[in-house]
Amino acid sequence: MPLPKIQNKVGQQLVEIMFEPNDKDFWRAIILYGSNQSTYKMGLGNLLIKYADDNLEKITLDELAEDFFELYQNRIKNGKPQSKRTTTGDLQKGVTYVEQEITSVESNGTNKQKSLDKIRKRALEEMVLKRFNTLFQRQIPKPFYTVSSTHLILSDNLRTLFSDKQNSVMSTEVDSRWDLLEFGFFNLKNEDSVEIEETLEFVIQKKKRSQISRLKPILNGYQIGKCFYCHEDLYDPIHVDHLIPRTAIHHDEIWNLVLSHEHCNKYKLASLPPKHFVQKLINRNESVLKSDLPLREELIKVLGMTPKERSDKVWSQYLIAKEKGLAVWGGSETFNPAKDDLFRGLIQFYNKTYWSRKFDKIS
User: Fold this and answer.
1) Do 68 and 124 form a contact (C-beta atoms < 8 A)?
2) Which residue, of 40, 261, 268, 302, is most buried by count of CB atoms within 10 Å of its CB?
3) CA–CA separation, 68 vs 101, rounded Å?
4) pTM higher than 0.85, yes or no?
C-alpha cells in the first residue's frame, strides 16, 4: 500500500510531501496521539526508555511487573486518577488494577508477590503489552518489543532510539502526556462526545438516540466532510464533539458541537481548546447564519441576534470552562493538529487502511 502524501502550499505552488513515518515518528505518535483509557502506556513508555538507556536487550516479566508497581506506587502519591472512572454512590468503577493492588498491599497487608503476579497478568500481559505497539487500533510496522512467555525483549529500533540518553526530549513528552492524562481523567465526569452512526441520521449518546438532521448542514455546509480539528477527510465512526467541554458548561447546545474523527476526539479528551479553535467555531456559526440552512434559527435563538452578541456568548462560555482550571489541549495556545505533519500524516495513513478494509468487505 503506497504511503499518503501531505500537501502544503508554498507561495502559489502546491508541494506534495510523501509521508514516510520512521521509528521516532511512530514512538511519538503512540505517546502523543494514541488512544488512552488509562496511563498504562505512559508507565510502560517510561520503563522502556529506561531499559533502552541502560542498553538492556531483555527483562523478565516478573522484573517488569515489580518496576511497574514501584513506578506507580510513587506516581499515585499525587492523588490523581490513572484511568477514566465513574462514581455511583460510594462505588468507584474504572480504578486500574495497578492502583488496586498497590492499595491492597499498603492498606490491607496483601502479600506483595501475589499482587505482582496479578499486575503481570492483568495489567501487563493482557493489556498494555498487547496495545502499546498500536495506533488507531492497528499494529505499527516495526514494534518496539516482543513478548515471550517469560521475557520482554527490546527491539533494535527501541534501543537505537534511546541508547546513551538520545532523544531525551521524548522522555519529557512521556511525562507531560502522563500529566495531561491525569488532569483529563480527574476532570472528566461525563463523556464530551457522541457517536454518529454511519448513515449520519442518528446520534448515539449512551443508550439514547435522537435525530440529528439539523447537524448535517455543519458537515455539508461548512466542514465539507472534513474533521474540525485536523481538517482531514472524515470517515466513520464520526464523533460529535463539544468543542468547549460539556463537563464545564453542562449543555448540548448546537452552536458548540463539531464533527471530528474518533481518534482526534479521544486525543482531545475534556481539554480546553486553544483559542484559535474557539474563533473557528464562531466563524463556523456565522457562516451558517449567512445561509438559509435550518440551523440558522436555532443559532439565533441560543446565541443572539447580532455577531457581537453571539461572539460574546461563545467567549463567555469559554471563560467559564477556563475558570474550571482545565488543561489546554496540546499544552499550548498555538497547538493545531491541522498544521502538524506527523499527526495529519498518520491520520491519512490509517484512513487509507480503513478504506482498503471497507472496500474489501464490499467486494
Assistant:
1) yes
2) 261
3) 11
4) no
Radius of gyration of the chain from its Cα atoms, rounded to whole angstroms: 22
- Closest C-alpha to 195, from 281, 245, 263: 263
> Could you list the pLDDT tens digit for every one of the 363 residues in the chain?
344 444 444 443 433 445 577 898 889 888 877 777 899 999 999 999 999 999 999 999 999 999 999 999 999 988 888 988 776 666 778 889 999 999 999 998 889 999 999 999 999 999 999 999 988 777 888 999 999 999 999 999 999 999 777 677 788 888 878 887 787 677 554 444 444 444 444 444 444 444 444 454 455 556 777 889 998 887 777 778 889 988 888 877 878 888 888 888 888 878 899 999 999 999 988 877 876 555 677 788 889 999 999 999 999 999 998 988 888 888 889 989 888 888 887 777 766 655 454 444 333
* C-beta pairs of 109-117 under 8 Å, 24+ apart in sequence: 112/69, 115/69, 116/62, 116/65, 116/66, 116/69, 117/65
Distance of CA 17 to the CA centre of its chain: 25
